[in-house]
UniProtKB/TrEMBL annotation:
Gene3D superfamilies, alphabetized: 3.40.50.2300, Winged helix-like DNA-binding domain superfamily/Winged helix DNA-binding domain
Species assigned in the record: Nitrospirillum amazonense
Every HTH luxR-type domain range: 133-198
Pfam families to which the protein is assigned, alphabetical: GerE, Response_reg
Domain Response regulatory residue range list: 2-119
InterPro entries in alphabetical order: CheY-like_superfamily (IPR011006), EvgA-like (IPR051015), NreC/VraR/RcsB-like_REC (IPR058245), Sig_transdc_resp-reg_C-effctor (IPR016032), Sig_transdc_resp-reg_receiver (IPR001789), Tscrpt_reg_LuxR_C (IPR000792), WH-like_DNA-bd_sf (IPR036388)
UniProt keyword annotation of Phosphoprotein present: yes
Name of this chain's protein: LuxR family two component transcriptional regulator
A biological process term (GO) from this entry: phosphorelay signal transduction system
Keyword annotations: DNA-binding, Phosphoprotein
Domain of life from the UniProt record: Bacteria
4-aspartylphosphate modifications at: 54
Amino acid sequence: MRLLIADDHGLVRDALSSHIERQAPGAVVVGAASVDEAVVALRQDKAIDLLILDLRMPGMNGLDGLQRVRTEFPLLKVALMSGLARPDEIRGAFTRGAVGFLPKTLSATELLSAIQTMLAGERFIPADVNTADTADGASFTRREREVLDYLLQGRSNKEIARSLELEEVTVKLHVRGICRKLGAKNRTQAVMRAVEMGIAS
């Protein structure tokens, strides 16, 4: 996979690149220090699979930078990254076509799982951010719905990972997302909420 990380802090770019390349040997990570540099890099390298864009980077102007990139490269997968973002900013990012939001507090393993999730065509939303006004079946991604179905069967994370051919840490991220959307503190409560709300299939 080929990634472009756009962040005005060189240390952040270097740290993220090291984490990703260590976790995924063979991955190619390119860096940019501004939206302008990111656009130039994307014009030169048509093989970039995912752009990770710092929300507070110079040139972003809120979400204008994301809109600019999406307008010129409509097929490119773009994820926002930030140490702190308001729920309305994250919702706005998804409205503008972002495929995920990456908190800078993610561990290296969680970061790689989030990247793999987005490259597989799923959205990644941090578990501690509520981007939906209501929790219903329609708010789940396809993968979250599959994981929820297995939770309802009483399967463990390891069993779900084996059945869906995913890493266990990826399943844990999906379970966290399900709990967030259902307003549940843990998987047991999530199952109870799903049954109460008639989401269970």
